[in-house]
Inverse folding.
């Protein structure tokens, strides 16, 4: 039998994980729905004279809860590795590290997004209906309706770059999944602290690069692809690199971080397997 991947072995692993966690997952979904209802009721009561269940409230609630719930769930997926008896049972499960990683991605990415979006919109449509029944159309003329959060999934970063919140979420979630393997205890908190440290170091290096190494100027036509060195106006110099370099960097940052962290997680799991 293939030691790297076997579909039969993988399907058994997926079924085992569901059998071990179905009660916890079911209760978690109901708890999430209850918290959403509570929050939306609170928002309706406090925004009654303005826009109850407005698009902004719905969108902010969606993305905040997505990041909070998604990262916490990912940080707990391999929590068994933090307790020696459970870790031994986990490592003795007859499945490869790759199959365990695929199982984690199936639950934390695919199934999580399906259940999260379904639960959110089920509550959202219910609360929008209640808000309509209570208030009708707001005096400002804005109609109360279910917001399409996917219209806000991409936001402009500068003139030629946008940030996709979904891929950004996958990158952040992948870091927390790695943290659940790397840290034996308090992985969620330690991953947050580690993320702040890495972010602070990146900020310091970026600040040092711009303030101390680069001459006075600004990016003119593209981030990291063109830089206008200010001299006296007449003698300003524009430094450019081919545009494809900027596009490649953008693709790598947007789409490459999550797969990279998943690969690191795989090798970390493989080390523990050995």
């Amino acid at each position: 039998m293939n030691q790297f991947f076997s579909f039969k072995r993988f399907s058994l692993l997926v079924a085992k994980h569901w059998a071990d966690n179905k009660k916890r997952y079911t209760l978690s979904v109901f708890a999430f729905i209850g918290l959403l209802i509570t929050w939306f009721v609170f928002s309706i009561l406090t925004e009654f004279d303005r826009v109850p269940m407005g698009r902004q409230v719905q969108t902010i609630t969606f993305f905040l809860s997505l990041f909070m719930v998604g990262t916490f769930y990912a940080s707990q997926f391999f929590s068994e590795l933090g307790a020696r008896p459970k870790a031994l049972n986990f490592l003795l499960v007859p499945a490869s590290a790759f199959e365990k990683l695929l199982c984690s991605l199936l639950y934390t990415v695919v199934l999580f997004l399906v259940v999260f979006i379904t639960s959110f919109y089920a509550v959202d449509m219910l609360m929008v209906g209640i808000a309509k029944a209570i208030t009708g159309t707001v005096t400002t003329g804005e109609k109360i309706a279910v917001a399409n959060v996917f219209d806000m999934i991409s936001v402009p970063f500068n003139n030629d770059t946008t940030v996709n919140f979904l891929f950004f979420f996958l990158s952040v979630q992948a870091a927390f999944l790695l943290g659940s393997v790397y840290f034996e205890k308090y992985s969620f908190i330690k991953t947050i602290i580690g993320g702040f440290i890495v972010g602070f170091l990146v900020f310091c290096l970026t600040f040092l690069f711009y303030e101390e190494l680069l001459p006075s100027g600004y990016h003119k036509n593209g981030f990291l692809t063109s830089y206008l060195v200010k001299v006296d106006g007449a003698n300003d110099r524009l430094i450019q690199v081919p545009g494809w370099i900027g596009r490649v960097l953008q693709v790598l940052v947007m789409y490459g971080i999550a797969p990279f962290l998943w690969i690191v997680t795989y090798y970390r799991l493989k080390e523990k397997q050995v």
Q: What stands out?
A: The CA atoms of residues 127 and 133 lie 10 Å apart. The helical segments are 7-46, 55-76, 84-92, 97-135, 165-182, 187-213, 243-255, 257-273.
